[in-house]
Structure formats: structure tokens, C-alpha cells
Amino acid sequence: MSMVDVTGKKLVYREAVAEGVIRLRPETVRLIKEGRVEKGDVFDVTRVAVVLAVKKTSELLPLTHPIPVTHVDVGFDIPTEDSVKVTVRVKTIAQTGVEMEALTGVVAGLLNIWDMVKKYEKDEGGQYPYTRIEGVRVVSKVKSETS
Amino acid sequence: MSMVDVTGKKLVYREAVAEGVIRLRPETVRLIKEGRVEKGDVFDVTRVAVVLAVKKTSELLPLTHPIPVTHVDVGFDIPTEDSVKVTVRVKTIAQTGVEMEALTGVVAGLLNIWDMVKKYEKDEGGQYPYTRIEGVRVVSKVKSETS
Amino acid sequence: MSMVDVTGKKLVYREAVAEGVIRLRPETVRLIKEGRVEKGDVFDVTRVAVVLAVKKTSELLPLTHPIPVTHVDVGFDIPTEDSVKVTVRVKTIAQTGVEMEALTGVVAGLLNIWDMVKKYEKDEGGQYPYTRIEGVRVVSKVKSETS
Amino acid sequence: MSMVDVTGKKLVYREAVAEGVIRLRPETVRLIKEGRVEKGDVFDVTRVAVVLAVKKTSELLPLTHPIPVTHVDVGFDIPTEDSVKVTVRVKTIAQTGVEMEALTGVVAGLLNIWDMVKKYEKDEGGQYPYTRIEGVRVVSKVKSETS
Amino acid sequence: MSMVDVTGKKLVYREAVAEGVIRLRPETVRLIKEGRVEKGDVFDVTRVAVVLAVKKTSELLPLTHPIPVTHVDVGFDIPTEDSVKVTVRVKTIAQTGVEMEALTGVVAGLLNIWDMVKKYEKDEGGQYPYTRIEGVRVVSKVKSETS
Amino acid sequence: MSMVDVTGKKLVYREAVAEGVIRLRPETVRLIKEGRVEKGDVFDVTRVAVVLAVKKTSELLPLTHPIPVTHVDVGFDIPTEDSVKVTVRVKTIAQTGVEMEALTGVVAGLLNIWDMVKKYEKDEGGQYPYTRIEGVRVVSKVKSETS
């Protein structure tokens, strides 16, 4: 096992966009949209969780390199009445790509949504029959000599 | 926004099991199974990534409480020729449940698998047409007075 | 130099409230109140920064003990047209008090406000002639056998 | 909410100096000066706390960028018989300024002083009637093409 | 690979003492003793590094459990003219022993000494012909029902 | 005490190799070699612990600068029947050397081996009469204009 050697690679512009979806009960999605979740505004807290998680990627994934992230952008979307989508764009000037950073942001964001709506998703036995994270993928990766 | 107040709750036995799947090219799954991934043994590295991520949950998810985790167990499964499943069990004696810890372990594990097989999953344009994280869910949650 | 030995102390209910103020230009305070700060909702982001900082106290202050925080609550107030006050309440069942945790939350919150409104506070030379953090203090400390 | 995009900015020399004051009982200031604080040498421990906190800035303030800090310098001053001043200078070659890094160092330093002299500052009820952090500000910010 | 399950274990008093030695040039040891090392007082900075490292053990060693450390004590000794010994005592009330915490403190302390005296230890080629860490061991481990 | 000012230094290729040895009972070394240690494959887990520790160096050693590590390589050797040697190579393009990073990796690796074989090393009294970390040193340091 070893970290890929990127010593000789040039510092170039890198960008990656990743996304993922959390399936929730329609009532929960409605509470999120209307800002009525008791733990606070789900989108606001999640944006912060995403940005901090992107910056922690090299601590979480052993073989990734520390990256001087220059931009993180977080978007939300409600594609169906029972799901919320998180999209994360990361930019840098670095020797290696940032798709793992974007993906780490997406899953941290989806987990944070889950954490904030646990109360509405659990059944009487304390189980989660509906909640799922799905479709976590890299939407696009860009690498170019000029930013 | 605020952290739920668990001050008055009793310290009881808590357990949670979570799982999730990463979809990969069949060739990549074969390389993993045969231990021929260039970056190292995928299951071994992933186990470590999972355990460390479980212990980092309260840093990643703003509203979670610090938990004195007493056990983490990681399992792997190859349910189809194009997917790998990660299962994580977390135990504790605490005032609040550990499903977010188990889920954090699962997504960190799936992301680590992705990171280790990037090379085999990318197409010529550097994109990931097949790779997906799916079915991340809580399998079971237990809370009882005695462990 | 050494960490105070709390090994023999009883686990009892502890609570601390701390507060502090950031002085800003009246125009900046207005932008914050009206939610028109370009970097995002200042109160929402600050709440998250506070809660995460409280949990990081024992990493920042060398001689503090790790504490199983059970509750963090963050409040905002606009006492004058040119200031914002942050109040943080922390609870735990522990062998030692949590005033350093509450204070760490307050200063992290005030710094985060500063970071989000830098653009409106700087003069043409890039300096900060008005911005100040003042009045950071412990409002109250409670210790009792029962929570 | 989003992190400012600094991708296109040039790497230039940046420096920031910040300072702040902690008000203490005159007896406590005397103990600090004479090196008789039971928990250890306050200036020595505080210097370490400051340097480590400066390096942690991007973990504490969600919207700050990771910065390759090249120098941190910490100074102490006793401007009156009941206060201690902490001054922190941070240097880097980066795409964005380091005033938040210098400020983070200052407040971590002031909090560490508080933590080390708690015993002398508390009244019989365990409260802190005198202790305050005041005057935390950016003294100067420099940005230039050459260091 | 998995973390040992300590869920069913009783919370009892635990203590561990570890020590280790760094071999240095006699001139370097003299500079340390006389407090003339340019980077600062070696013992003071090292004490802080040790205490913080002890609290980070469960982040560094994947299979260790998070431990609520209740006391850390650091001692220094100059057993020969060309060596410095670091001794670390750690106490807790926990389900598992703290020898890995004490050992982590010792090696962090020894490495910090090395870092502070690099300048005096390097030869003209920038190599370290003398510097060595030796004799890192657990001096004693205690476990008892009462503290 | 202060961090050396490296602001004016050029970004050049840097490499450091460090090594160290852990003395164990011959039976324990045999179990490691044969992959029969109950806690898991010692070499695999240790490699991950080393790489993560290298990336954490500037958090552990107060006066070190954050370094954009570009490569980490970990090797194992069994020089005698009662010892295991860990060798770590670190590369970067930076303003300062990486020997502290390589050394941090070595000691984290040796401690992780210890943690994984505790059970086989302890005597009936729970003490460690044989286990020792020895010979931690910098094997070589390279600095050159071209990588």
C-alpha cells in the first residue's frame, strides 16, 4: 500500500463536481423545504458541514494527498417529493485531482441532513425503514493548464 | 440550530449496524477480490479508514455528541459481480445512539474503496461513468439496559 | 506544567455560560440583521462554528481535559447598532467544569462573524479600523449533584 | 454560504499582526510575571498554544482557506498591572490574507492564559468577577509582491 | 482487523508510565540544560507537545479506544551527558489501559526535542550522524478498583 | 519560542528516509510474519497508520510547518528473530525539510505494531518486560533543485 507519488506533477487547475441523494419521507422533505426542522435550517448547517469535510479529506482517506482547496460551492435540489440532492464543486491548483474532496463533501452533507431529521425518519421501534443515501457519483472532472 | 440536550439521559448499551454499496466495473471487483489492486489490499486499508472515521464522527457532523465508542467491526461482501458492500457495527455505553457513527464508517469505507481503484474506474477522459455509491442505510439499531 | 489531576473527582452536572461582543460598523450590523451578507447567513454559520469549536476545546487548550459535552446552545443579540453579542451555554456530566468550553465557543463564534464580514469592515488600505472583540467573559458557572 | 473563490489569485507575500488583552487580578498578573503559576510557565505554554491554533484556523473557521503558514511569532506585554497583552504575527506566501490566522492565535493564547490561572481568578462561588478578554484587533495587514 | 470489544468491561482506575531516551551530542544536551536553544525552552515546549499528543492517541493508533484522560504528567532527566530521558504518566477511569497513551506522549516528546535541536545535531551535509531515539518502553501499568 | 521563518526560502525538492525498530518476543515476530495476529494484518494496518501520521506532523510537533506531502512510502523488515524494522520515505516540494515527517511516520508505525501485539507481549502481571522501541534515526536527507 502506498500513496501515489505526485512529486513530479505540475501544479495545474483542477475542478470536480460530485452529487448524491438522500431518500426521505415526503413529510420530512416538506419540513426541510419550509425550514421547520427543529434542529435548525438544514441547508445552512449542511453547507458548513460540507465545506469543513472537504478540507478534512486527507485525514479521512489515507491515500489522498493534502490539497490547498481554493473554492468549495454547495448546492441543494429537491428532485422528487421524497429526496434531497446535494451537489459539491471543489477547485484547486494542485498536482492531483479533487474528486475525492468533492465526494467527501457530498457524503458529509447527506449524512448531516440525515442527522438533522432523524426524529422524523425513525419508526416507533427507532428504526429507519425509508432513509437511504443513493446515487453518489462524480458529475465531472476538469484539469487544465489555465484556470 | 442546536445540539439535542442529552444531559439527563441514562448511559445505556447502544448498538447500530449500517451498510452501503459501491458499484464498480466487474474487472475492478475482480482485482479487489484477488488482492491485485496496485495501491494495496483494499479490504485492509478500508477497515482502518472505517474505524478512524467512526471515531471522527463528532468532528464531521456538527450536531452529534462525542461518543466513547467501545467497539467497531467492519465486514465486506461482494453481492454482485459489479459491487462491493461495506457493513459497519458500532457499540457503546452512551446517552445517545450510534447510527450516525456507523453510517460515517460506511461512507468513509466506500469512499476509500473508490479512492483506491480510481485508476481502473476512470474512462479515457478521466471521468467515472460507472462508479456509484448506493443503498447506504441503517440495518438495525439496538438500545438496552444491559449489554 | 501539568494537567490538573481530576481522577478522583466525582462525575457531576456542570454548566457554564459565556458571552462576548464584536464591534462592527453599523452598516455591517444592518447587513447581518437583514441576512444580506454575501458569504451567507451569519447567525446560521456561526452557530455551527461554535458547536464544533466547543467540541475541539481539549485540542486547542493544552491543559484542558477531554469532556463528553452533552449540550451546546448558542444565542445572538444586537445590544447596540454597532455590535453583535454571542452567548454560549455548555452542559456536561463530568469531573471538571466547562467554562473553557463555553469561552472557546464564544471566541470561535466572534471570529467567524469577523471572517464573514471582512469585506464590509476593511478600509481602502485593507485595514480594520473599527472591528474589535470585547467583553469576553464567563456569565455563570453551575455545579450540582443533580442535573 | 460559500468559500470565496481564490483560485485565480496570485501567490504573494502576506503578513498580519493581531493583538488582544486579558484583564486579570493584579495578584494573578504578578504570579505570571514571576513564573509562580502552579500549572507552569504561562508564557511558554501559551506560545505553543498560539502556534498550534494558528495552524488549525481552517478547521475552526468554516469559510477560511487552508494556508501554508511560513512563520508565526508570539509576543507578550504587561500594559497595566491588571492585564496581559498577546501579539501574534503570521507570515505566508498565499492567495489570501492571514488576519484570521493571527486573530485565531491571539484568542487561543488569551484563552490559554485564562485556563492556566483559573484558580487565582475565581471567587468563592467559583465565578469570574474580574476576568475579561478585551481589545482583540488586527494591528496591521501587509500584502506585497516581494517578501 | 477490528477494535477489541470493551463494551462489557468495568470502568476502573488505570495508570501507565512510559519512558524513552533521545541521544544527542553533548553540546546539544548542554544547550538544552542551560536553556540556550534558539527555538525556545525545550522542556516547556515538549511538555505541551506531550500532553496534546496523549489526547490524540485514538486518532493516531487506529485500533485504540477514545479514553477520557484525567491526568498527564511529564518528567525530564539527563541520565548521561549525551542523552535526555522523557517520562510520561497517564491516569484515567476507563474500560481499557492507557499504556499506548503514555507511549504516544513519550515519542511525541522525544520527536519534539529532536525538532527543536535539529540545527545543532546536523552535520555539514545536513545529516544526523548522532541523533537516535532509544529505549522507549512501558515502565509500569496499574489497574485497580479504586483510585 | 518561535517557528523558524521560512517565508523567503525557495520551494525545492525534499526527501527524507527514517527508520526504527521494535523489539518483540520471537513468538510475536513469528505471528506477525505468518499473518496470525488476532487484531489483523500488522503490516497492512501499520502502513495506513504511518501515512496518516506523516500527514499529521504539523499538528503534533508545535514548531513544524504544514507541508504538502507528495509521497509516502513504508517498508518493513525483520532484521532479527526478535525485532521488526519500519522504514518511511517522505517526498515533497517545499521550503523546509521533511525529516520530522518521516520520523513521525516511523514512531507511529512502531507504536501501532505495539498496539496490535499487546496481548502477546504482556506477562501475567500485565507488564511489558521485553517490548522496546530502539534505533529511531534519519537514514538520509536529500534537498535538490530538481526532483
Tell me about this structure.
6 copies of one chain form a homohexamer. Chain A has 147 residues and is of the alpha+beta class. Chain A has one domain (12-144): Molybdopterin cofactor biosynthesis C (MoaC) domain (Alpha-Beta Plaits, 2-Layer Sandwich). The first copy, chain A, contains 4 helices and 4 strands, in the order βαααββαβ. Chain A has helices at 26-33, 42-55, 57-60, 99-121; strands at 12-23, 69-80, 83-94, 132-144. In chain A, helix 2 (42-55) packs antiparallel against helix 4. The two termini of chain A are 33 Å apart. In chain A, 58% of the residues are buried. At the A-B interface, helix 2, helix 4 and strand 4 of A face helix 2, helix 4 and strand 4 of B.
